[in-house]
User: What shape does this take?
Amino acid sequence: PKPPTSSAAAPRPGGPDSAAIKAALERLGAKRIVRKLLIANNGMAATKAMLSIRQWAYTELGHEKAIEFVAMATPEDLNANAEFVRLADSFVEVPGGPNRNNYANVPLIVEVAKAVGADAV
Assistant: This one.
């Protein structure tokens, strides 16, 4: 398969204040900060996960963009203009076809997570 390609979103003005987020995480007793999350799923599961995490980030950390989402997306997802790709801050194109080629391919998920510098999957 061809190597993954990506599209980074432009930085958004009025982004989260790192000091305020750090203070909120300390208040919550966080041991590790997750700033970038790889979404290694598609469809409704990915959409609901991002919406829920954004709502939590706004409620608990004071900013819905406190966590950056990088979505894995197949050519089929991109051609369909999938909602989860539009919700993500950026995406990495992965091979299409059956799940064993992409969303169920653990070595690929790990490779993409490392390549984008994700703190969690």
Notes: Helices lie at 18-28, 43-61, 75-79, 83-87, 106-116. The first strand starts at residue 5 and ends at 8.
